[in-house]
Amino acid sequence: MLSLKLESISKSFGYRQVLKGINLEVQPGQCCGIVGPNGSGKSTLLKIAAGLISPTSGKIRFADSNKIVTFDTARNSLFWIAPDLEFYGELTALENLSLFAKIRGLKKSRAEIVEQIDRVGLEKRENDQVGSYSTGMRQRLKFALALVCEPQILLLDEPGSNLDWQGVDFVDRFIRDLKQKTALCLATNNPDETKYADFSIHLG
Amino acid sequence: MPTSLSIWVERVSALFLKEIKSELRTRYAFNSLLMFSVVTLTAVSFSVGQFTLSVQVKSALYWLILFFASMAGLAQVFIKEEEAKTSYLLKLASPPAIIYLGKFLYNWVLLLALQVIIIPLFVIFLNLELVNLALFLTVSFLGSLALSAATTIIGAIVSKANVKGALFAVLSFPLLIPVLVAGIEGAQLATSGAKFSEAWGQISLLLSFSVVMLTVSIILFEFVWSE
After folding, report:
1. Pairwise CB contact (< 8 Å): A91 & B93
2. What residue ranges do the domains of chain B occupy?
3. Which residue, among B143, B17, B158, B12, has the nearest Cα to B74 in the 3D structure?
4. Which chain B residues contact residue A95 at CB under 8 A?
5. In 10 A of CB A105, how many CB atoms?
């Protein structure tokens, strides 16, 4: 199982330094909370961990039972759920998830993908274009994609945003289930979500 | 047991087919390419009236239309990902080289589809005589390969810029001058009935340019694609 380690991560946007010397290590079965006020760099830190943006300085390391693995190897075992993650509106939910699985090189049947879409409460909506989905439904679809990917490292940015109470209930079960075997990083300011964290880092 | 090459082919094909599917549903790029080409061709056709254009002018016009149409349509391939914020989905899914190759293949097919439409229109409206049809098609095929390879990487660079408007033309014009010159000369030779051996210089230039551009783009795309 993969673990994630961030070493002295700093990030600047122009002259503005958002992150300075952040160190973080998350092992499988652990959940790290990332808290801080708006603009403190929580989302930026998760994007850096996901390899979506480069840090100004510092290193991101992935290890599998103390053996260092490259980002290219770790990519397939990593997933990120955030408000900035968007689907193709012109494709259906099933097409979006199938596309992602195929590009990642995952062998997933249509039935397996539909099962995960159903699991997040989008039964019988798999053939609807994502453009017709509400914000909350899109948020649920991100969790369906995470279930399809079966990640070993999961980065969650405001996971409960835009969800109704049923959605929040699903997220609760989702995090509790995955926490057993996954290295989790959770960026949030919601007190109901910080409870999942085994330890936290405070930014800003 | 699938080889790593076959896995790569599957992943690139998946992205390419997604682009085709999205294009068929949105007509995001092809309509721009087609409208630009047809409007330009029709305007030139009406303005020259009964006068006959020389082979040189017709060949230049053909490649200029392809060049500007590719600027109007092909750059969109990455800009739309940035605008719709779907680029993160692709970044999470796969290594950059797969993204570049999938987008490049789509751009190439789009340009080939445009050629299938505008070559007959050139014959009809401007009386383009395709004396050596095989040579003309070879030059067009290789020219579109070179144009797509270059415009795909330039499109990726432009998509990261704040001011996208004129940047595509500014970046692509100096880079694509060799392609334009070889394409125009090759088309001239084909329409004046030259043999393949006489156009070997143009063919080899277009082929070499494409190979170099594709190789460099695959290497550099990772740096362009990352933020």
Report:
1. no
2. 4-225
3. B158
4. 18, 21
5. 17
Q: Could you read off the pLDDT tens digit of each residue along chain B, which spans 227 residues?
A: 456 888 889 999 999 999 999 999 988 788 888 888 889 888 888 888 778 888 889 999 999 999 888 887 787 888 888 888 899 999 999 899 999 999 999 999 999 999 999 999 999 888 888 899 999 999 999 999 999 999 999 999 988 887 766 788 788 888 999 999 999 999 999 999 889 999 999 999 999 999 999 999 999 999 888 87
Q: Which of B22, B25, B94 sits opposite A104 (nearest CB)?
A: B94
Centre a 10 Å sphere on the Cβ of residue B104 and count the other Cβ atoms it contains.
27
**Buried-exposed string A34-65: b where 16+ CB fall within 10 A, e elsewhere:** bbbeeebbbbbbbbbbbbbbebeebebebbee
Provide the shortest C-alpha distance from residue B11 to chain A (in Å).
5
CATH superfamily of A2-202: P-loop containing nucleotide triphosphate hydrolases (3.40.50.300)
Chain B: closest CA distance from residue A91 (Å): 7
Global confidence as pTM: 0.91
